[in-house]
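Researcher: I need the complex structure. Ligand is dinuclear copper ion. Inputs:
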Amino acid sequence: SYEKIWLMAALLLIVGFISTVTYGATAVGIDMVSDEGGTVNASALDEDPRFSEPRVEQVGDNEYEAYVIAQQFIFRPDPITVPANSTVTFFVTSPDVIHGFEIVGTNANVMVVPGQVTELTVDFNEPGEYGLLCHEYCGAGHHTMEGSVVVQ
Ligand code: CUA
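Model: Output:
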């Protein structure tokens, strides 16, 4: 609908302003893409190849890095699987709008901003499954945006 187009245009403007503030005039981080999703390619996605295939990587004995994309209206990868007794640093970005990243049952609760990478480190001890929720309104499917972190 036209309403959606104007909403997207407004979001693009906002994203553009944020990007200008963050990266300065030299980095044009926003690339409008006319694909069916009407999504915005944020600079973090374009410039950091680790997000091209969202995943968990082992970087030390008990240390892991998780590259996560939060987008309307899913988290990738899903589930995010890590071993018990590990320390996981999450790098989370968004290709479209602002999302939330909350791991239920932990104090991990951050905002994910298009074009920026949010970093947080979480220790996982007990095996189990944690819910992953988006807690920032991000569109019509916001209430369905959930994933999970599986500690095994
Ligand atoms: Cu993503 Cu709400």
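Model: Summary of the prediction. The domain at 2-151 is CATH 2.60.40.420 (Immunoglobulin-like).
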